[in-house]
Amino acid sequence: MRVGEIMTREVKTAAPTESAEDAYRRMRLHRIRHLVVMEGKHVIGILSERDLGGSRGTTLRTGRTVGDLMARDVATAKAETTIRQAANMLRGRTIGCLPVMEDSKLVGIVTVTDLLELVGEVIRKASTDARWKPVRRMGRWPRNAEPGRARS
């Protein structure tokens, strides 16, 4: 599976001159934890909720801009990057997201949350596929079995 299959295509961005407080409010409004910082068409940073101090970061944000608080060393991925490669980059750099680039253009973002949702879906699917299902014979359920319950 590839990053392009799970990435969010509608990426929320910020300008480096935007106030940190406005960026935080926007993140809360959209229920997201990362903004890609753009200067023109170029990705120049990532701003995370943690960079903004979270819910108790009012003092940190006051009088500061996105450019003051953003992380400038941005790791990126391509749509063809495998999920395993993306997970290794996120874990290895201890970061929460990867902007997805194609021909120097921002086309999406993949986050740790996206990867965890994928893992949860795979596990859910595997557990329902492997679940024991009783066979109903002559109008009766097998001994010690209840309809809809898996046997341990």
Automatic annotation (TrEMBL):
- SUPFAM superfamilies noted in UniProt: CBS-domain pair
The record's CDD domains line, in alphabetical order, gives:
CBS_pair_AcuB_like (cd04584)
Q: Which organism is it from?
A: Anaeromyxobacter oryzae
Q: Which Pfam families match?
A: CBS
Report the InterPro entries cross-referenced here. CBS_dom (IPR000644), CBS_dom_sf (IPR046342), Diverse_CBS-Domain (IPR051257)
Specify the domain of life of the species encoding this protein. Answer: Bacteria
Q: What is this protein called?
A: CBS domain-containing protein
Keywords of the record, alphabetical order, are: CBS domain
Where does the record place the CBS domain? 10-57, 73-120
Q: Which stretch is the leader sequence?
A: none
